[in-house]
Design goal:
- By secondary structure, this protein is an alpha+beta fold.
- The protein folds into two domains: 37 residues; 49 residues, SH3 type barrels (Roll).
- The chain is 40% helix and 28% strand.
- It contains two helices and five strands.
- A five-stranded antiparallel sheet has the order 4-3-2-1-5.
- β1 and β2 form a beta hairpin.
- The protein is rod-shaped, with a radius of gyration of 28 Å.
């Protein structure tokens, strides 16, 4: 007899469950190492873009550094990159806020 009695007595589900466990483990590791950190970065970027205000010094994804002069409601900001040189930039392209500006005081 070539098969030992211990191997012949294993149930049919033991092999199936044991083959699914490594696949599930890979998905859990994939989620923890790749998806979760990316979701946190996207959330932080969305929060940063939502909190942009006039006077902030920003860096765009194209490498342009400037000061926000106007925040528009349609997803754009106006950035002054040199004296009397202003460009309109899509808010989502802002990659970094270098310095928070002072809040603008409204005149009474």
């Amino acid at each position: 007899m070539l098969i030992s009695p211990a191997f012949a007595q294993t149930g049919p589900l033991d092999g199936t469950i044991m083959s699914i466990v490594p696949i599930l483990l890979m998905f859990v590791i994939f989620y923890l190492l790749l998806l979760r950190p990316q979701q946190q970065r996207v959330k932080a970027h969305r929060e940063m873009v939502a909190n942009l205000r006039r006077g902030d010094t920003v860096v765009t994804s194209g490498g342009i550094i400037g000061k926000v002069t106007k925040v528009r409601d349609d997803g754009e900001i106006e950035v002054e990159i040199a004296d009397n040189t202003r460009v309109r930039v899509v808010k989502a392209t802002v990659s970094e806020v270098r310095a928070k500006g002072e809040p603008v005081k409204e005149s009474a």
